Amino acid sequence: MSNFKRWLWDWVETIVVALLLALIIRALVVQVFWIPSASMEPTLNIQDRIIVNKFIYRFKEPERFDVIVFRYPGSGPKKDFIKRVIGLPGEKLEIKNGRVFINGVPLTENHSMNSDFSYFGPVKIPAKAYLCLGDNRPRSADSRVWGFVPRKNIYGPAFLKIWPIWEVGIIR
């Protein structure tokens, strides 16, 4: 084999291996998503880019206040959504004058958010489902509109904002 053919083969082999590794990592470990709406402001803004850990929920369940990416529940649009987990399976949730109550106890929310004065529920969250709300409550189409998020629809938690570059950091 000539030096040129060997050099070309080495490059092709390197590129194919790199592409296969990238596809495996994207499918099983982490994936980049972009934010298309204002429903998570002020935590995340329109056009932000985030990284989602698609691996961690194989070993543990979503927790309250996790910011998660999931497929739209039901037979609606084939879109990915991002919201914050507020209600867990088996809980009774109600919103009175914008304040969330879990099993009758007011929930303390320490994350940044835009509050509203809405009323919702009471509802009992089914097994293997979550109630998710946007941080921009007045402008968020969330579980109050389209219902619970089935566990099987959840990709994973968003853990890192990577764009814009001057706002790179951990998502809380």
UniProtKB/TrEMBL annotation:
Residues 9-163 form the Peptidase S26 domain. Pfam families: Peptidase_S26. It is a single-pass type II membrane protein. It is found in: Cell membrane; Membrane. One of its GO terms (cellular component) is plasma membrane. GO terms for molecular function: serine-type endopeptidase activity; signal peptidase activity. It comes from the Bacteria. It catalyses: Cleavage of hydrophobic, N-terminal signal or leader sequences from secreted and periplasmic proteins. Its EC number is 3.4.21.89. The chain crosses the membrane at residues 12-34. GO terms for biological process: signal peptide processing. It is an enzyme of class 3 (hydrolase). Keywords: Hydrolase, Membrane, Protease, Transmembrane, Transmembrane helix. The active site is at S39, K83. InterPro entries: LexA/Signal_pep-like_sf, Pept_S26A_signal_pept_1, Pept_S26A_signal_pept_1_CS, Pept_S26A_signal_pept_1_Lys-AS, Pept_S26A_signal_pept_1_Ser-AS, Peptidase_S26. PANTHER family: CHLOROPLAST PROCESSING PEPTIDASE, SIGNAL PEPTIDASE I. Belongs to the peptidase S26 family. This is Signal peptidase I.
